[in-house]
Design goal:
Blueprint: E1 9-15, H1 20-23, H2 37-52, E2 59-62, H3 66-79, E3 86-88, H4 105-112, H5 114-122, H6 138-142, H7 145-150, H8 163-183, E4 188-192, H9 194-205, E5 223-227, E6 238-239, H10 243-254
Parallel strand pairs: 1-4, 2-3, 2-4
Antiparallel strand pairs: 1-5, 5-6
Bound molecules: 1,3-bisphosphoglyceric acid (X15).
1,3-bisphosphoglyceric acid binds next to helix 9.
């Protein structure tokens, strides 16, 4: 009888809980907004879901931005692995939202129209206009100590990013760091952002440039991939949450640019 092979390996990813700027409905990108009160609660609920499902990890990866880092710390606090090694990388940062950083999403729709904002927000390869030095948040971003310590080199530092550009700097992390660890059966938790994770999901599920434009990830709900020996998922991502709760959280993100 042929031996059954448990060759698949799981990886868990989470978009951080609601941030103060998600709550205010502002484009955030590389601005270092912290979690809102509900964001902290979402993170703790994510920790409970992981604990209930019995997940244990060997290492966690997160971005250099505090909304992702604090989500991770809250998850680990609840799930019981506060001593887990944590690696921070700018390659998991949210996409840089360029000149849109700090703008209200609905006010931006009113000024530029729904179609233009949809292109900036969800098109695959059209970046928002670049952030110039006179931008209100230029110094807050370029002088953020966390970004100076663990960020990109000055020549890699973006002024804006499309999803395509975001994927181009996230994939080296996936291919060079995550894949070898997964091959060694390391149990990995990644806590990152809406668009850096959309990039990874697009890559794994081979979602087309067109279809990714309507794909949204909810805040604070962990999802799992089981990857085969070729590091390909045999199925779409699986959320650790009730389907109606997941769908409501996805719709909330999709509707951020729609009038109530
Ligand atoms: O910073 C952001 O994402 P994040 O809250 O996942 O870090 C963006 O403002 C998300 O906005 P979007 O969903 O309009 O791309």
């Amino acid at each position: 009888m042929a031996r059954k092979c448990s060759c698949s390996v799981d990886i868990i990813m989470v978009r951080h809980g609601e941030s103060e700027w998600n709550l205010k409905n502002l484009f955030c990108g590389w601005y270092d907004a912290d979690l809102s009160e509900s964001g902290v609660q979402e993170a703790r609920t994510a920790g409970e879901a992981l604990k209930k499902a019995g997940f244990k990890f060997d290492i966690a990866y997160t971005s250099v931005l505090k909304r992702a880092q604090n989500t991770l710390l809250n998850i680990l606090d609840v799930q019981g692995q506060t001593d887990l090694p944590i690696v921070k990388t700018w390659r998991l940062n949210e996409r840089h939202y360029g000149a849109l950083t700090g703008l209200d999403k609905l006010a931006t729709v009113e000024k530029y129209g729904e179609e233009q904002v949809a292109i900036w927000r969800r098109s695959f390869d059209v970046p928002p206009p670049p952030m110039e030095e006179n931008h209100q948040y230029y110094d807050a971003i370029t002088k953020n100590p966390s970004l100076l310590e663990n960020g990109p080199s000055p020549d890699e530092f973006p002024k804006t990013e499309s999803l395509k550009l975001t994927i181009e700097r996230t994939l080296p992390f996936w291919n060079d760091i995550v894949i070898p660890k997964l091959r060694a059966k390391t149990r990995i938790l990644i806590v990152a952002h809406g668009n850096s994770l959309r990039g990874i999901v697009k890559h794994l599920e081979r979602i087309s440039d067109q279809d990714i434009t309507t794909y949204n990830l909810p805040t604070g709900i962990p999802f799992k991939y089981s990857l085969d020996p070729n590091m390909r998922p045999s199925a779409p991502l699986e959320y650790l949450g009730e389907p109606d709760v997941v769908q409501a959280a996805i719709d909330k993100v999709a509707n951020q640019t729609k009038k109530k």
